[in-house]
Amino acid sequence: MRPAVTLPPTAARVNAVGPSPVREILALTARPEVINFAGGLPAPELFDAEGLRAAYDRVLAEDPQRVLQYSTTEGDLDLRTAVAARLTARGLATGPDDLLITSGSQQALTLLAVALLEPGDVVLVEDPCYLAALQCFGFAGARVVPVPTDEDGIDPAALAEIAERERPKLLYLVPTFQNPTGRTLTAPRRREVAELAGRLGFRIIEDDPYGELRYDGQPVPWIATDPAAADRTALLGSFSKVLAPGLRLGYLRAPAELRRACVIAKQGADLHTSTVDQAAAARYLRDNDLDAHVATVRAAYRERRDALLGGLAAALPPGSRWNQPAGGMFVWASLAGGLDATELLATAVKHEVAYVPGAPFFVGDPDRGALRLSFITQGPDVIEEGLRRLAKAIEEHG
Ligand code: PMP
Question: Ligand 1: does its nearest atom lie under 6 Å from the Cβ of 40?
Fold first, then answer.
């Protein structure tokens, strides 16, 4: 018998970062009986499967040798041209060469972390913050420093003070319909953030997967449109919430030197995003009216948001608070009466309803009563039933 050898352990950073609590909860709640306010899963019945199938059929029939081949790291020119036109129409003049197509906008976060961060660099984040961004910055060895937020997003006064002290390299923001809170940073605050970035010399990641899912009010201009921040802001977008997340298609719009650094990082990650998926998406955008599809999705999600908001008062303990997001996927609530949302979850799952406790999203002191409720996956009737189950779980939990 050969003597047993001990294999080298996995890298310490994997344990240090740890698994995503949200994805673990998703596994726990995958049973079809469970009414799911947990994952931000786009409504599957609204996927335009026919349109996408036609687009795949066409590119595979008409151009198989190209769409099944390796392709450039920057991404499909037709797709970049279509995305650039959409960004330009929304107020941010963009050409195809300003863009890098990524495998989901999640990959753009990884590429930016690889391209920008040295171990120990400071990254400022909203508190609470999108979890998988924290994982990316953790893998890069960054020191993540939380900045307080309120109903209008990140607090500019606190940001100024923390940025003066910490001299961050980067500020990560989801300014519109944030994950997990659904909050939107106001236009005056965007101005302040841009000016601060200009004055103190940090970069901004403006992560915007939800901006097109607006149910009320007027769009607020991207920070990337502000002259003070234009040369230091990377804007991320995604097809996940407006078309289908399984496509894994996103994009990064960044100033030339940063985009080139991300192209190098992407070569080491996956060479390029799937050629056939990009070609099919470009073809879909040519043959279909994505805006009309998004309008249908918006109308359905608005109704679902209203169903959730309409039922929360009866479901949560008196004195609980929650917001009224103008778009996106999430309502952020805080349970009254000292209830701990993490402890309550086991009882909720027993009653076949699930949500995500708020605590893991905090880098600083968590609000233990906080929870994130996604309203997009199921129709109003199911949402109402889910809230009845949640009320029973709260009653039983005591
Ligand atoms: N950023 C934020 C804020 C998100 O909520 C998500 C998805 N949950 C992503 C990025 C990643 O989305 P995708 O990779 O599907 O584009």
Answer: yes
